Amino acid sequence: MTTNRTATVTRTTKETDISVTVDLDGTGKSDIETGIGFFDHMLEAFSKHSAIDLTVRCKGDLHIDMHHSVEDTGIVIGQAIMKALGDFAGITRFGHAYVPMDETLSRTSLDLCKRPYLVWKVHFSRDKIGEMDTELFKEFFHALAGNGGMCLHVENLYGENCHHIAESCFKATARALRAAIAEDPKLGGKPASTKGSL
């Protein structure tokens, strides 16, 4: 069992100032401040269900809109997860999860392979949840996959309530990630790849 799978990443641009700390072997404790209420709620759920301790501080140009804050937070969380994973050796690598939420069912499958890709099959019937634009959820997951080395497939299979759809997608991704980052003792600390490296 490896130790200290933790990382802190900061990223400052003219649009955002973000700091993220992750502990992949945590218990799902979170301390989130992005200035976007619903986004904070989703990241808290992501932390809880992935069992990753997550601290996020984001100061963004919210006087313009929420796009930069949401996308850049996805970038930094992805970078922090990748940094904490090191060479990805010894991890299960793949994960998947189905998460129901009342009338809604969502599914995530992911591969921690350092070859990022996003498939996003999620439709929202409303433009906003709270004050957050629903189109920004795709931007977050695209940034997370691209910077976390994930091949990430997120699908809402059915549902009507947009809050439930968004939350089930975050929870399904969290549960899939929890499985993928788990260490597999049968690998003996080696990568789960026939190529010998990821």
From TrEMBL:
EC number assigned by the record: 4.2.1.19
Entry GO MF terms: imidazoleglycerol-phosphate dehydratase activity
Pfam families for the chain: IGPD
Residue intervals passing through the bilayer: none
Pathway this chain belongs to: Amino-acid biosynthesis; L-histidine biosynthesis; L-histidine from 5-phospho-alpha-D-ribose 1-diphosphate: step 6/9
EC top class named in words: lyase
One record GO biological process: L-histidine biosynthetic process
Subcellular localization(s) per the UniProt record: Cytoplasm
This protein's UniProt keywords: Amino-acid biosynthesis, Cytoplasm, Histidine biosynthesis, Lyase
Keyword match Zinc: no
Keyword field contains Glycoprotein: no
Major site of localization recorded for this protein: cytoplasm
Enzymatic reactions: D-erythro-1-(imidazol-4-yl)glycerol 3-phosphate = 3-(imidazol-4-yl)-2-oxopropyl phosphate + H2O
CDD domains found in the cross-reference section: IGPD (cd07914)
InterPro entries: IGPD_sf, ImidazoleglycerolP_deHydtase, ImidazoleglycerP_deHydtase_CS, Ribosomal_Su5_D2-typ_SF
Entry's Gene Ontology cellular component terms: cytoplasm
NCBIfam families on file: PRK00951.1-5, PRK00951.2-1, PRK00951.2-4
Family: Belongs to the imidazoleglycerol-phosphate dehydratase family.
Protein name stated in the entry: Imidazoleglycerol-phosphate dehydratase
High-level lineage: Bacteria, Pseudomonadati, Pseudomonadota, Alphaproteobacteria, Hyphomonadales
